[in-house]
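Researcher: I'd like a structural prediction for the single chain below. Treat it as a standalone chain; there are no partners to consider.
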Amino acid sequence: MNYFKTRREFLRDMGLCASVLPFVANLPSLSFSGKSLRKQRLIILFSPDGVVPSTFWPSAVGSEFELPPSLKPLEPFKNKTLILRGVSDRVRGDGDNHMRGIGCLLTGIELYPGNVQGGGDTPAGWSSGISIDQEIKAFLQKNPNTRTRFGSLEFGVMVPDHADTWTRMCYAGPNKPIAPIDDPYQMFGKLYGQAKDQEMLKSVLDDLREDLAKVRSQVGVKDRKILDEHTTLVREMEQDIRAARTRDVGHAIPVISPGVKRDNDSIPKLSKLQIDLLVSSFVGDAARVATFQFTNSVGDARFTWLGIPEGQHGLSHEPDSNKTAQEKLTRINEWYCQQVAYLAKRLAETPEADGHGTLLDNTLIVWTNELGQGNSHTLEDIPFVLVGNGLDFKMGRSLNMGHVPHNRLLMSLAHGFGHRISRFGNADFCAAGTLPNLT
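Model: Treating it as a single chain, here is the predicted structure.
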C-alpha cells in the first residue's frame, strides 16, 4: 500500500485538513503508521572548541568506569552511555583544523578549495561530500515503511547568520551545505504550520480542535492517550514561546519582528525550546534523523549564566597550566552535557506509540565536537559520546578505539540502520570496515 496515498485517503475519508497529520502520524491503529516496524532514530549533537581531556575522558575502560566531571550529568543514563575515545579525524587538505573539524566531521571527506581563509592555513570552501545524517536520511526515505514528512530536521542554537565553512556541518551532497534552523518559532512553524497572527501567536491547536475531536472519536483508548500527550506538549511549547516573547520588562514591549529573542544570554532557554521541539517532532514521526548544533566551530558563546564572562573560544586557547581557564572549560562542557542529559530524559519519559518502550529505547544520541582539545587544535581523540539504544550498540561502557579514522564510526551508524555501505567519505580510511566491539 502506498504510504502517501494512505495518508491522503485517511484525510479524505475523515474530512480532515492536512495540518492534522503531525498529530496523528504516529498513532498505532492508523494504517500508515508502520506500527509493525521499529522506529530507529538518530540525533547528532554538536558543541564546539574541544574538551579538557583530564576532566572529560574516563580513566578506566570497559563497564567499570566512573564518569568524570564533564560527563557527570549523564549519571542517570550511565548504563545507556557509550564513550568512544581514540576516534580521530584523519581528513586533511585545505582549511584549518576548525574548518576541517566541522566540515569533515559528518562527511569524512576533504573540503573543496575555496576563498574562506582560516587561521594561517590554506583557505577552503564547502565539503566535497554528503554528511552521514543525510546519507541515512536518504536511505530511510527510499523505503515507504521508514519514510517521514521531513526525513531529517536540523536544529541550531545561536548559529551565526553568515554562512561559511565554520558554521555548517550537514551537507546534502558535495558543495551543498544545509543551514540549521536556530529559531524555535521558525521550527515550530515548520512542524505545525504558521499561525495566522504571529504577533499574538494564535494557537495552532485552536484551528485543529474540530479535526482532533474527529480523530479522538475514531481511535481507541491507547491512541487517545498518545494524541492527548502530543497535543499537550504542543500547547506547552506554544506557551513557552509566547512567554519568551512577552515577559514583563517593566515597560511597554516595543513592536519587534515575530520570533523568539535570539541572543547570547538566552542560550539556555533556546536550548530547552529546541530540545522540546525535537522530541515533539519524533512523537509526531516527522523525522527519524535530527542534528542539533550549538553555535559553530570557533564558537565564542559567553556562559554568563554560569558566571563565566569570557568567550568559550578564547578560553579554549588558554594553556593547560591555566587552571582557572581549564576549570571554566570543564564547567562549559558539563553544561553541554546537561543538555544531552535533558534530551535523553525527555526521550526516556516519552513512550513509544506502539507501547513498546520509550523514544530513548529506539534513539541513539551522538554528542561530538570539531576538535579533541582547543588549545592544541588536535583532530585526535574527537569526543564521541553515545546515549540511547537506537542502534543496539552495547552501552554502559567506556572504550579506547586506538586512534581509528572516524569514517569507520560514520559507517557503523549507517550499518546500525541496515544501510550496509562499504565506504563513506574518503575511501582511504574505510578499508578496515566498521568499528569493532560496538555490538
